[in-house]
Design a protein that fits this description.
Blueprint lengths: L1 E5 L4 H12 L3 E6 L11 E5 L5 H8 L4 E4 L11 H14 L5 E5 L13 H8 L3 H16 L3 E7 L1 E3 L8 E3 L8 E3 H14 L8 E3 L6 H15 L3
Parallel strand pairs: 1-2, 1-4, 2-3, 4-5, 5-6, 6-10, 7-9
Antiparallel strand pairs: 8-10
Helix pairs in contact: 1-6, 2-3, 3-5
Length: 228
Amino acid sequence: MKLAVFGATGGTGRRLITQALAADYDVRALTRSQAKLPPGEQITAIEGNVLDPGAVSETVENTDAVVCLLGRTPNNPPDVVSRGTRNIIEAMDDRPVSRLLVLTSMGLGSSSETVPWYVRIVNATALHDLMADKARQEELVMQSNLDWTIVRPGGLTDTPRTGEYVHGVDIDASARPISRADVADFLLQIVQEDLYVRETPIVTSQENADLGFFLDQIATIAKRLKTN
């Protein structure tokens, strides 16, 4: 299978590509820095930015599925996630590839009650612009004619892959820590088994999450946003 990956050099993107190459996938990845990509003969790097429709189209060309892991990064406008996703959708509409996976966040849409009250407050204040951009991203995806899946993870960590996580739509689960490696594992499972078409599953672990964990998560995001 051939995957197009956007957000390939982010924390989840690097882990997804590493796992995809190990599973014998071919990967086309859009990046501004090829050196940040994992090595491998089955990976093709397309140099560019998701705001460039031409680079996006080249990345999508001759692939079977697209994985969108976009986030806020330095030197990009605050609406890069939704604008980039619009370019991805338009590129897919022009090609015979309809399978799209998008990673957003628990706390959006129907998952708003899965995060603690203090996270909801921060999302509505300090992180309002970021969450609004992700909400617009989800809206664009849901309005498309593609075979999309929107995945909403819990709090992302850099711990190793465990394979021990819970996922589903409308399940009784709250936002807890989950490793980026496990999220990557789940995304590849969705691609391979064609799960959750036109659905918005959450994925999280059953680890304990206290106030300190969420404050650390919020501080990390806020620090990253200040670089824009």
